[in-house]
Amino acid sequence: MRAWDRSAGRRVAELARERVKDEWRTDERIAELESDLEEARMLRARLDAKLRAKRVELAGLRGEHAALLRRYATAETERASALEKRRLLAIEASSSTAGADPKQLPAVSEERTSAGAPTSVGYARAHAAMAALARKAQERALPKARAVGELPASATATATSVPARRQAAAVAPYAAQRRTASRVEGGFDFFGTKNSAQARAAIEAVQNEDLADVVGAEALAVHKAESAQETAEPEFKPPTDETRAVGQVIDLTAHDETEPIDVVRLRTAIS
After folding, report:
1. Helix H segments across the chain?
2. What is the mean pLDDT of residues 178-196?
3. 48, 156, 173, 185: which could join 221 in a potential S-S bond, CB 3.0 to 4.6 Å?
């Protein structure tokens, strides 16, 4: 019995020692695990800091990349604009070297504005030039007229047989020719064109005087001669591509000859 008690006591003491050893080992393991956990936490904090720094750096790189893309787009736009300007300049240079443009406006001067319209100075110089031309033409025409007047009758007779060549510079102004009827017309104006023709002739005379004051009598005479030649041509013109679309109007006023009515003869016939 005592031996059993002693063996049981020893067994209990061994178990107690084993339990204490296990407790010490457990405490040591817990301490090691706690130290490992603290190290892991510190490492995690360091990794989080590095990750934040990398994220900031990545954001900066993305911003720089976007700025580079914007600069590249701006440079490409400027390059395209420069190429377009060079192309336009080359086209203008080629067009200017190929030939002068007839629609190009003259340079700005005292006689013309920037739009190409004549000024009062230009009108005054043109009027003075036309007056000088008229005076020179009259001075050249006077000696010729005197020489023709001094020729003998025989020379004038032979000269009249051969038509002389008339110069355009010695044309003198003349009045418009009036058409004479083949028969005597009465005083009755059926269409009322008699007074209007007189008024039109008076207006044309006043306009011719004003025009002669501006451009000179010689230029006015040349213009009248050209207009007389144009009116001498047949009034009807064959239709062309331009006139066929618009049409042609024939003025029949000059051909309208109202037959006069003998009122006395009618009254005697009625009575």
Report:
1. 2-98, 120-150, 153-161, 194-215, 217-232, 241-246, 263-270
2. 51
3. 173
